[in-house]
Each structure stands twice: as C-alpha cells, then as structure tokens.
Amino acid sequence: MTGTGGHERAHAQVVVVGGGISGLATAYFLRQRLGPEARLRVLEASERPGGKVHTVQVAARPVDTGPDAYLSRAPELGGLVASLGLAETVVEPQSSGSYVWSRGALRPLPPGMAFGLPERLVPLLRSGLLRPTEVARAGLDLVLPPSRLPDDPSVADLVRPRFGAGVYDRLVAPLLGGVHAGDPALLSATSTVPEIAAMARSGRSLYLTMRRRRRSAPTPAGRPSAPLVSLRGGLSGLTARLVDELGPETVLTGAAARGLDRRSDGSWTVRTDDRLLPASHVVLATPAYVTADLLADLAPGAAELLRGIGYVDVANVTLAFRRDQVPPLPPGTGFLVPPVEGELIVGCSWLSQKWPQPSDDLVLVKAMVGRAGDSRWLTMDDGGLVGEVREALSRMLGIRAEPLDGIVQRWPAAMPQYVVGHAARLTALDAELAGLPGLDLTGAAYRGVGLAGCVAQAEATATRILTAQGASA
Q1: Same-domain check for residues 359 and 412
Q2: Residue 39 to residue 19: CA distance in whole angstroms
Q3: Which structural domain, as residue segments, surrounds residue 383?
Q4: Which residues contact 93 (CB under 8 A, 6 or more apart)?
Q5: Residues 316 and 257 reside in one and the same domain
Q6: Is residue 60 part of a domain?
Q7: 421 Rama class: left (phi>0) / alpha (psi -120 to 50) / beta
Q8: Is 62 a domain residue?
Q9: Residue 457 near residue 426 (C-beta atoms within 8 A)
Q10: Partner residues linked to 14 by β-bridges
Q11: Closest by Cα among 60, 64, 70 to 91
Q12: Any bridge partners for residue 57, and if so which?
C-alpha cells in the first residue's frame, strides 16, 4: 500500500464508495452543482460500474438482466434522464396488461389495482383470478370496523384481516414478491408501501379510501405516459452516460475500499489495496453488509444495525426462441406467480412484446427466480436452472422449442428486505452515525429499492453534503 501525493489529495475531497446507480448518481448530482472543478472519486470494487443495472446481448438483442424499467413519474429520476440528454431514448411498453398464474391458468390482472389491492370488485370477479367467495370476502372491507394496527404493521397485518386470504395470497403476495422478493408477512407496510399504509390509517375502509383518492387525483394533461418506461438499448445507457459525464479519472473500477480512517481534523481517509484517498466527505453507496464491514471499527453499533438488514438471492433466465416455433403469447407484458402455487419461477416478462424490438422474428422471455423462503434453485447449476424454467414455460405458455440463445444471471444477496422495524432501525442508525460528520450512507438498503428510490436518495445525499460544506445548490 502506498500513500498519495499532493495531486491525488487535491482531487479527492468527496469519495463515493460503490459504483452502482446510487453512487454514480450521487457523484453526478455533486458534479452538476459544484461544476467541473468538483473534486470527486467513485470507487467500484468490480471491473464494471453500474451494479445491477446491466444490459447484455441475447440473440443480438439488448436485454437488461437487472431492472428493466423505472417509474416514469419519479421526478428525481426523470430529471436525471433529461439532464443526461437521454429523454429522446425513453421507450414505453408496446403492450399493456399482465397476468397472474393462478390455479393452473394465466388469469388477467384486473385494472384498478394498487399494490395488489382491488379498487373495483366487479373486474376482479370477471378476471377469474379469485373464486367468487374470495371476491365476496374482499368486499367485507366495506363494512368491517376500523382495523387496530400496530405502530409498524406488516403488509399481512394491513391486508389479510380486511380483504381475506384470496387477495393476500393471489394478488398482494405475487406483486410484492416481484418488486421486493419478500414475504408480506414480514415486510413492513410503512417502509414498503407507505401510501397504502397511510390510507389504511386515514379511513375505516381501505377500499373506499382508495376509490376516493383515485377520484380526487388530478387528471394529467395530454396523453398519460406509461407508469413504467425504459431506455432504447437498455438501462445500461443510463449508467454508461453517468460514467461518461463523471470521467474515467473520477470513476475507478477494480478499486475496493478496504477501510476508513477518521483523521484528527475530522476529515477522512479511504483505504484501498494501493491508495490512500483523503476526503472531506465519504459516501458509502454499498450494500448494507459491505457497509457494516467498513464501519465495524469506527461505529460498531451502526455495523450491528446494518447487519440486521436481510437480503434475498434472486436470478433470472432469459431465453430467445424463433417466433415460428412458439405459440402466440397472450397480449400483455408477462405474468406473476403467487407463492401458494409452489412454482420455482416468480414471474415472467415477455420482452419481445414488452419493449420495441428491431425485428419480429424472435420471442424473448425472461423468467425471474428467487424470493424470501425459497432457496431450491440455489443448489442448481445453470443448466439445471434453465431446465426447470423451460419445464415451467412449457406448462404455462406451451413453449417447447429449443432456445436459440440464453443467459442465466444470478444476483446473490440482491434484494434488501424492509421487514417490520425497518424504520426504527434507520432511526437508530442515524443516531449511531450522528457522531461521525462527513459520512453518509445511501442506496437500496435504506429508503427505496428501485431505481427511482435510489436516485431520489442520491439527490438527497448530495444536498446534505453541499449543505454541510456550506455550498449553494
């Protein structure tokens, strides 16, 4: 390990550890507000920046093996896309509608759903997704007395007593499983679905509260955009543009942070295998378990809290088929699978119907695997996993053809779990870190697991740093 000279010292005032979307966006927001002379370093342990935002080629088509869409109405992310000059590359899904695999068939997800909760009962009945008795049970929310909720209820606490097991098992569980890979009986409603949790506390009937909220919502001007959008060519275009804007001298790959030292003047030193990077401010944009290791000596209480944030392993299998060898897929973008079905796959996206494609001769499907409580696939090699997915696609979609190409992407410890007590954990974590000014944590482990949540946290982190340094945004 070697020390750094004056040149390195002069250009490393803010060091961001972690080159995923959270770290890159934090550095970009700082550069944007401080100008080209901003002294920044982003350290990424792997050889590829971008984290789980990763676009690869499958049968010469771009495929995102991590997230493949983002919330179009998220202001911070939308502003970032526009600022990077990527607004013209935004694409909407070509098809709308999705399904749930329920009792041996694909059944349409009815319109007017909010995180799996029905805003209208008649479309739910017509969908066949629930039995008539289960729909009738869901309607009891209209007449039940107000629920007595704990301070931090689980999603199950919020849903099951009011809507019954049908809605919980076949709507809420698969939808939250697709977003969080979590168990709704363990996930905090306040931290994972804060809008629904707030509505549950604001009125007697959650169903009626959702209906009133929808009616009172302002009508968007012009044609409403799709709720989820992507970028032409894949979402790696976003992280690649961030890296380009920051520059290769800022984003250092293959540079794992090995430790943090606090200096007597209150500044910091970040240690890598071959560098000592001084900093006035350090941002840890790493998974909670990595951040815990970095803080073990400096803040053992914070490290213990961070290690209490659990993660779930997930994977996806993307396969390409000749269109003339595949039966027509239902209109829409894909389907989700409730845990009660006992299937290995969590859901499936029909990529060739979901996003614009250069030609119509291929069918691309991406099957997602992995959720809380299901580790069956972890012992399978890639060939075994592909075989299990193909068997499921044969039963569910009638696809029996041999794939032309494919890829298996495993994401170990990928999805942080906002279990009951998550908000209190974050409050305790803030208190533990209050005595370490100049240190910030950001990323999916804290206040938002999706791209939009990570970018919103990154902007807030940059603002805190600028405020602490006395800079004007």
Answers
A1: yes
A2: 16
A3: 311-416
A4: 69, 226, 228, 229, 333, 354, 355
A5: no
A6: no
A7: left
A8: no
A9: no
A10: 40, 281
A11: 70
A12: 62
Report the pLDDT value the prediction gives residue 129, as an integer from 0 to 100: 93
Residue 145 token pair: 């007395």
Residue 343 belongs to a domain with what CATH number? Answer: 3.90.660.20
Q: Which of 344, 354, 356 is nearest to 317 (CA)?
A: 344
Q: How many CB atoms lie within 10 A of CB 118?
A: 26
C-alpha dist (Å) from residue 179 to 170, 199, 209, 451:
15, 20, 24, 11
Tens of pLDDT, residues 217-250: 665 555 557 889 999 999 999 999 999 999 989 9
pTM: 0.92
Total domain count, the chain: 3
435 shares a domain with 294: yes
List, for residues 434-449, the tens digit of each pLDDT value: 999 999 999 999 999 9
Strand, coil or helix: 406: strand
Query: What is the C-alpha separation between 138 and 129, in angstroms, rounded?
Result: 13
- Considering the domain architecture, whether residues 249 and 321 belong to the same structural domain is answered as no
Q: Which stretches of 108-235 are DSSP H helices? A: 121-127, 132-139, 155-167, 173-180, 189-192, 194-202, 206-216
Beginning with the edge strand found earlier in the chain, give each strand of the sheet holding 259-262 in spatial order: 259-262, 268-271, 276-279
Instruction: Name the burial class of residue 375, with classes exposed (0-12), middle (13-18) and buried (19+) by CB atoms within 10 angstroms of its CB.
Output: exposed
Q: What is the DSSP letter of 115?
A: T
Bridge partners of residue 277, in order along the sequence = 270
User: Same domain for 196 and 292?
Assistant: no
Largest CA distance in the chain: 74
State the Cα–Cα distance between residues 469 and 301, nearest whole angstrom: 26
* Rounded Cα gap, residues 81 and 89, in angstroms: 9
For residue 212, give both structure tokens. 């009133």
DSSP per-residue codes, 283-330: EE-S-HHHHHHHHTTT-HHHHHHHHTS-EEEEEEEEEEEEGGGSPPPP
Give the SS3 label for residue 67: coil
CA–CA dist 18, 227 (Å, integer):
29
Is position 61 within any domain? no
Strands 14-17 and 40-44: what pairing?
parallel
Q: How many residues are present in the chain?
A: 473
Q: Which pLDDT tens digit goes with each residue over 151-202?
A: 999 999 999 999 999 999 999 999 987 889 999 999 999 999 998 899 888 8
**How would DSSP label each residue in 45-63?**
SSSSTBTT--EEEETTEEE
Residue 100 lies in a domain: no
